[in-house]
Amino acid sequence: MKYTFKIASYFGIPVRIHITFPLILAAAGAEGWFLGGVTDALRGVLLVLIVFVCVILHELGHSLQARRFGIRVRDIVLLPIGGVARAERLPEKPSQEIAVAISGPLVNFVLAGVLALVIWARGDQFEFNDRFLTNLLIINLVLGLFNLVPAFPMDGGRILRGLLSTKLPYPAATRLAKDVGQIIALAFAILGFLNTKLVVLPLIAVAIFYGAITEERLVKARAENAARHGRARDN
Ligand SMILES: [Zn+2]
Q1: Boundary-marking domain end, from 126, 148, 170
Q2: What is the domain extent for residue 125?
Q3: Could you report the per-residue pLDDT of 97-129, keeping only the tens digit for each?
Q4: 212 CA from centroid of ligand 1 (Å)
Q5: 170 with 113, same domain?
Q6: What distance in angstroms lies between residue 84's CA and the mean position of ligand 1's atoms?
Q7: Selected catalytic residue, list 59, 97, 215, 216
Q8: What one-character-per-residue DSSP string does 80-106 give?
Q9: How far is the CA of 122 from the centre of ligand 1 (A)?
Q10: Measured distance CA(235)–CA(232) in Å, rounded
């Protein structure tokens, strides 16, 4: 990916930020500034940074699981909309695809569980006494659950494709998962237009809609490539 800068490296996997990444920091800072001045601006930026620490941990979950199956992970790239772990290839078996896809959300659920234990051990109520830890817990629950929505490019889309491809050929499983994702995208778009507070939903819908098309194209290209190589070898 062009215009990325390495900021760290964990387990030998470089973490890069895309040049557009500071936009989300600027947006959070500006929103805080308008709401309550410098303190709220800093709080907004800090919150986004913490969310992205959770995103990096989520992507490391995918990456380390992929590596267990012998798949090399080139890097983790942070974009304003989230993170991507870029692997050199897709897992071969459906069970591997499911395991790699589920490992990201699992990291968030484990973090949420640990945070719940810490809040409980400190004798705090869950009534938002400990705002920071409770917020962090909610962030991780939301990250985990949102990624399980069965639509590409979310992890849930890959889990669904993995499950379907135990019964169907890979391209057919991808097509069916794509259709399910696009129905969900449509539902998100309608919900977003009905309720103006959910303005983010139509944006997610657009991302899902294109994510689904990209995934299907990718699989089609791979199948054609494999067929061509097969023919070339036959000749
Ligand atoms: Zn993920």
Answers
A1: 148
A2: 1-148
A3: 999 999 999 999 999 999 999 888 887 666 555
A4: 15
A5: no
A6: 7
A7: 59
A8: TTEEEEEESS--SSHHHHHHHHHHHHH
A9: 31
A10: 5
Ligand 1 centre distance from Cα of residue 79 (Å): 13
Whether residues 159 and 139 share a domain: the answer is no
My answer on whether 213 and 232 are in the same domain is yes
Q: Which of 148, 173, 196 is the last residue of a domain?
A: 148
Residue 181 reports pLDDT greater than 60: yes
- Prior bond of 153 cis (ω within 30°): yes
Q: Is 215 among the residues known to form the active site?
A: no
pTM of the model as a whole:
0.84
CA of 177 to the centre of ligand 1 (A): 16
Distance CA 48, CA 29 (A): 9
Tally of structural domains, the chain: 2
- Single-letter residue type at 130: D
Mean pLDDT of 45-49: 89
Q: Could you tell me which of 129, 125, 71, 133 has the C-alpha nearest to residue 103?
A: 71
- Is there a single domain that holds both residue 131 and residue 185? no
